[in-house]
Design brief:
314 residues, Rossmann fold, L-2-Hydroxyisocaproate Dehydrogenase, Chain A, domain 2, six-stranded parallel beta sheet, three-stranded antiparallel beta sheet, binds nicotinamide-adenine-dinucleotide, L-lactate_DH
Length: 314
């Protein structure tokens, strides 16, 4: 029987262990099993994180194995190489597809009935790979996509506008990477069009500000990696937020990576679009309004991802 109070983390590096740390504090799960190719690493992280449990909510965090997948509600995959300074996410593709060829069949062979959440990069490509290798229905294989990038956009807009980031409705869509698109045309602050809110706050150079903010968001990972070698706290909170939507069947709208089937003229590519997320994974995509330039850039982003996926031997 599926147990939505149980999660499995595959990959216990920076991102995997920070995510389990965030999940441990969230109270969402009764148990989290941690798996890594380096068993000592999984054991050490599980021990360390479990020592925080008395200060949060009762649960178990332990080093496990693939048999833990059988009854898990969510399996999160963060295993894989991360970006080194000057590497793009797409540079990781061959290394991490190889790693997925060893991990995903282990999950699929356990008759897994829950939601598979892919976080390793390049996340859009690896979500497509995981869908193919697992044979699971597409709605149950989700990529964390541009949930983190959208968080970065809201953080930046919040500082620019002097308003709570949670009152801002704006999305980054497309690739989680260099061709991502900040959708400003439909962005708003609690229903007030973004440009109107900007003017209320004394900002009038809309094009220049949008360009700068989008660039900062796109380059955030490079800036962080240059300074501290890896990014993990922001993504850990994004993982926690996605798990929350699934476990609590929230049906919140999040920009997760999903397979496109002809929407906006894009077919056979996994990329991020706003989707309703709940206990079945992705319920449906939400038709976000794009202007002509945003639509063109989304199609270009899809073209880049499609070119890579077609070259892969999966
Ligand atoms: N989607 C996002 O928003 C986002 C954000 C940050 C990082 N990432 C990605 O997450 C991934 C992990 O990053 P990190 O900084 O934690 O890297 P890391 O090197 O710290 O950790 C990777 C872990 O994977 C393990 N691993 C490797 N092969 C394995 C296998 N076959 N089975 C089980 N475990 C295996 C390693 O032992 C290591 O502990 C990278 O691909 C990174 O680019 C994604």
């Amino acid at each position: 029987m599926i147990n939505f109070r149980k999660a499995v983390m595959v990959g216990c590096g920076f991102v995997g262990s920070a995510s389990v740390f965030a999940l441990m504090q969230s109270g969402l799960f009764s148990e989290i099993a941690m798996i890594d190719a380096d068993m000592d690493k999984a054991e050490g992280e599980a021990m360390d994180i479990s020592h925080g449990i008395p200060f949060a909510k009762q649960m178990r965090v332990y080093a496990g194995n693939y048999d833990d997948v059988r009854d898990a509600g969510i399996v999160i995959v963060t295993a894989g190489a991360n970006q080194k300074p000057d590497e793009t996410r797409l540079d990781l593709v061959h290394k991490n597809v190889g790693i997925f060829k060893s991990i995903i069949p282990e999950i699929a062979s356990r008759d897994f009935k829950g939601i598979l959440l892919i976080v390793a990069n390049p996340v859009d490509i690896l979500t497509a790979v995981a869908q193919k290798l697992s044979g699971l229905p597409e709605n149950r294989v989700i990529g964390s996509g541009t949930v983190l990038d959208t968080g970065r956009l809201k953080t930046r807009l919040s500082a620019h506008l002097g308003v709570d980031s949670r009152s801002i409705h704006a999305f980054i869509i497309g690739e989680h990477g260099d061709s991502e698109i900040a959708v400003f045309s439909s962005a708003n602050v609690s229903g007030i069009p973004l440009n109107d809110f900007c003017e209320m706050r004394g900002h009038y150079s809309h094009d220049e500000a949008e360009k700068n903010i989008a660039e900062e968001v796109k380059n955030a990972a490079y800036e962080i990696i240059q300074r501290k070698r890896a990014t993990y706290f922001g993504v850990a909170m994004a993982v926690k937020r996605i798990c929350e939507c699934i476990v609590r069947d929230e049906k919140s709208i999040l920009p997760v990576s999903a397979m496109m089937h002809g929407e906006l003229g894009i077919d056979g590519v996994v990329l991020s679009m706003p989707c309703i997320v709940g206990s079945e994974g992705i319920e449906t995509q939400v038709p976000i309004k794009l202007d002509e330039d945003e639509l063109k850039r989304l199609r270009d982003s899809a073209g880049i991802l499609k070119g890579i996926i077609e070259e892969l031997d999966i």
